[in-house]
């Protein structure tokens, strides 16, 4: 073997060794396409969004300690307080005044002092009342001031306070004591001694101010399934106004269409064979109506959404950024999700976007159902937003955020992972075009949105609250209803009020109405309200003047006063309604954002009803008013238990003030009528049960801002569409190797119950 051959073999050997080393060194590494990429938009907020941040548990504890030491009265922990005690009902953030916040955010002013709003029930006073205090500054409180009269024009009467968990427990004890007086009836009707029956509250609690008498509906209860579909036909009216629990009374009993003064009278009627009893067998776990247990073994996994190079959004504290969007988020324990300082491309679009109330109004021929008008804010829309289930309630790889609250306890509680944030691929083009004439090309953009979501469980119903941010500059707000329907015992002409969905179950008709506050600041605080709609006019065709044509034209109008801008529910409304800036865009039109409502609400409660003013926000699908610091919310948690003299009446906000070049607020109602049917068992599905609205740019820009999206796709007939450099979609196949490392599934949502 000559020297030349040896050298060639040596070089080949070295090359082989080098290749093997490279393979070994790179084995197990993700390809470059899988390397985590930081979000394109840096978070430059510098903590400014913390001015809107919910209170931390530490801040809540400090407020409680301050109140315990500085009010000069004995405070009992609300979790065990009797009506005759004083207690701290809740502690939440006191959102600073808008003018102060804007001076801080936009004008370089001082950060507003951080304060809390504390609600106290004073039952141990000569005149029991509810009082609200602003406490600050945090984190070390040094002062408190009573703001009750300033906010409501007077003290809040004690009977308006929401019912506490302890009060419900004491009512349950009373009902169980009374049920023991009808043992033979309970055995015959329900195969029960009463202790295994579930008890469901209704609201409001009477017919006039000062009443506190509640109908409670009884159901068969079976572990692991919803009892709401299993009424036994028995309902009881409990009077619980007195401050002394020992004086509470069961006032009336209803069973199968008949009313009795007491459970003793009910028992006597049964023993005397004067009562028609419908015998209901105790439900069995394997055949119970409404069971959600799977009936089939799991199949193969469905599609999984993930980000090949990590999230393209950024979350820091209470602030999220995504492709030009910037949002501060939070959760009010009563009214639920609230967003502030929503900006797109650095410009504020919305100062505040917040849920205000959720109304569920029922019909039935049973007393509990026919009198139910739940105002869910008084129960706690935010408080009952529990932990989200990873991979079902939100994508598995979403970002999950804990929320904290202090309600009916001196100790803060945490709903861990109860708010989720994720980028959603709608599997739909945001826009696209295939050109088949002149030149041949394709251009398009995927519809990817940022979603902020929470889900509240309010007794039987689950509400999914979505806030979505599109690359077109649009904001979408959506609510879906799911969970269990509520039901009544089927008797008499029950189907006049719903559909039969079980052997003895009437799915009772009801409406869901949801109210939102939208404080739009379009190109500045000062806006006007403009409407546009279509019309036809009959004209001679101008090229011959021989024939006529129906010419479509645009009707434009600027609304000058609040009364003009209050659009009644289900009444005709201009198709285009916009908050308009005095400043024009490039083409000379006012920079505007359009409000587009997608709703099929039921009929509002007649204004002749003595409780209508408490939900008078429901009169309007849209009402635009001048923004006032003293009108922060459209309702109150005190409206539920005294709707006849509402603490806050939204109708009073509309007083025909001018709305031209003013700081304006849009109040939006959405909802739907629900007539339950067989397919609502076991649960109501979200399909077809979603309503909401859009805030869409309307001449705000000079073109669609999504043209700047890095996700845009364009290729022509002259290009190699399979080349990654020419078509980003051709770069996707390598990304299939970027399957994420999913965290183990864990769930702690039952821990706080």
UniProtKB/TrEMBL annotation:
One of its GO terms (biological process) is amine metabolic process. Topaquinone (TPQ) is generated by copper-dependent autoxidation of a specific tyrosyl residue. InterPro entries: Cu_Am_ox_TPQ-bd, Cu_amine_oxidase, Cu_amine_oxidase_C, Cu_amine_oxidase_C_sf, Cu_amine_oxidase_N-reg, Cu_amine_oxidase_N2, Cu_amine_oxidase_N3. It comes from the Eukaryota. Residues 74-143 form the Copper amine oxidase N2-terminal domain. Residues 161-257 form the Copper amine oxidase N3-terminal domain. The modification 2',4',5'-topaquinone is found at residue 461. GO terms for cellular component: plasma membrane. Contains 1 topaquinone per subunit. Residues 1-19 form the signal peptide. PROSITE patterns: COPPER_AMINE_OXID_1. Its cofactor is Cu cation. The active site is at 376 (proton acceptor), 461 (schiff-base intermediate with substrate). Residues 305-706 form the Copper amine oxidase catalytic domain. It is an enzyme of class 1 (oxidoreductase). Belongs to the copper/topaquinone oxidase family. This is Amine oxidase. The gene is Aoc3_1.
């Amino acid at each position: 073997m000559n020297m030349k051959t040896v050298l060639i073999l040596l070089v080949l050997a070295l090359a082989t060794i080098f290749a093997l080393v490279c393979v070994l060194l790179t084995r197990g590494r993700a390809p470059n396409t899988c390397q985590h990429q930081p979000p394109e938009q840096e978070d430059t907020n510098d903590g400014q969004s913390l001015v809107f941040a919910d209170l931390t548990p530490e801040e809540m504890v400090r407020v409680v300690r301050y109140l315990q030491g500085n009010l000069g009265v004995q405070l009992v922990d609300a979790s065990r307080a009797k009506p005759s005690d004083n207690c701290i009902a809740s502690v939440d953030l006191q959102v600073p005044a808008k003018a102060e916040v804007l001076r801080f955010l936009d004008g370089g002013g001082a950060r507003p002092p951080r304060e809390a709003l504390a609600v106290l029930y004073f039952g141990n006073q000569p005149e029991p009342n509810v009082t609200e205090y602003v406490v600050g500054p945090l984190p070390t409180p040094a002062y408190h001031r009573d703001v009750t009269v300033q906010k409501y024009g007077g003290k809040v009467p004690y009977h308006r306070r929401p019912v506490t968990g302890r009060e419900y427990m004491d009512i349950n004890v009373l009902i169980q004591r009374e049920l023991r007086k009808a043992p033979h009836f309970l055995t015959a009707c329900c195969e029960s001694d009463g202790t295994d029956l579930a008890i469901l509250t209704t609201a409001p609690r009477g017919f006039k101010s000062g009443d506190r008498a509640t109908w409670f509906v009884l159901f068969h209860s079976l572990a692991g399934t919803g009892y709401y579909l299993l009424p036994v036909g028995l309902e009881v009216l409990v009077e619980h106004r007195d401050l002394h629990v020992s004086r509470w009374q069961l006032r009336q009993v209803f069973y199968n269409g008949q009313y009795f003064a007491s459970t003793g009278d009910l028992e006597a009627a049964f023993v005397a064979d004067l009562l028609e009893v419908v015998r209901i067998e105790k439900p069995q776990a394997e055949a119970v109506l409404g069971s959600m247990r799977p009936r089939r073994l799991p199949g193969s996994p469905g599609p999984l959404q993930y980000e090949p190079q990590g999230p393209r959004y950024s979350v820091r504290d209470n602030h999220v950024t995504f492709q030009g969007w910037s949002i501060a988020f939070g959760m009010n324990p009563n009214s639920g999700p609230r967003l502030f300082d929503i900006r797109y491309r650095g410009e504020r679009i919305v100062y505040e976007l917040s849920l205000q109330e959720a109304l569920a109004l029922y019909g039935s021929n049973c007393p509990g159902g026919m009198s139910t008008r739940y105002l869910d804010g008084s129960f706690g829309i935010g408080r009952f937003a529990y932990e989200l289930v990873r991979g079902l309630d939100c994508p598995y790889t979403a970002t999950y955020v804990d929320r904290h609250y202090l309600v009916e306890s001196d100790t803060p509680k945490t709903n861990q992972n109860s708010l989720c944030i994720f980028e959603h691929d709608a599997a739909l083009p945001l826009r696209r075009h295939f050109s088949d004439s002149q030149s041949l090309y394709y251009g398009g953009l995927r519809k990817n949105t940022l979603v902020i979501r929470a889900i509240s469980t309010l007794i039987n119903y689950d509400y999914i609250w979505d806030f979505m941010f599109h690359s077109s500059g649009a904001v979408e707000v959506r609510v879906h209803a799911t969970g269990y329907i509520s039901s009544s015992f089927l008797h008499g002409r029950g189907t006049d009020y719903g559909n039969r969905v079980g052997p003895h179950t009437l799915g009772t008709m009801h409406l869901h109405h949801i109210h939102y506050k939208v404080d739009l600041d379009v190109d500045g605080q000062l806006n006007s309200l403009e409407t546009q709609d279509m019309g036809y006019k009959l004209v001679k065709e101008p090229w011959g003047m021989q024939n006529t044509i129906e010419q479509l034209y645009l009707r434009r109008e600027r609304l000058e006063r609040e009364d003009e801008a209050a659009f009644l529910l289900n009444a005709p409304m201009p198709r285009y309604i916009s908050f308009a800036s005095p400043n024009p865009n490039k083409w000379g039109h006012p920079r505007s954002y359009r409000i587009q409502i997608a709703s099929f609400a039921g009929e509002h409660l007649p204004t002749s009803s003595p409780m209508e003013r408490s939900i008078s926000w429901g009169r309007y699908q849209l009402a635009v008013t001048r923004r006032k610091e003293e009108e922060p919310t459209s309702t109150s948690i005190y409206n539920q238990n005294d709707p006849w003299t509402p603490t806050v009446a939204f109708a009073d906000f509309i007083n025909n003030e001018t709305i031209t070049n003013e700081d304006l607020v849009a109040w939006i109602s959405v909802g739907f009528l629900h007539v339950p049917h067989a397919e609502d068992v076991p649960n109501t599905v979200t399909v077809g049960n979603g309503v909401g609205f859009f805030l869409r740019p309307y001449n705000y820009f000079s073109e669609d801002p999504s043209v700047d999206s890095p996700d845009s796709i364009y290729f022509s007939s002259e290009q190699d569409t399979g080349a990654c450099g020419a078509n980003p979609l051709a770069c996707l196949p390598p990304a299939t190797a970027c399957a994420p490392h999913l965290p183990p599934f864990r769930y702690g949502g039952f821990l706080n119950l």
